[in-house]
Amino acid sequence: MVPCASVLFSTLAAHWKRPGVAELLTGMGRDGAKGLLTLKEKGWHTIAQDEKTSVVYGMPAAAAEKGAAQQILPLQEIGDAITQSIRKQSRPVTP
Question: How many separate domains does the chain show?
Answer without folding.
Answer: 1
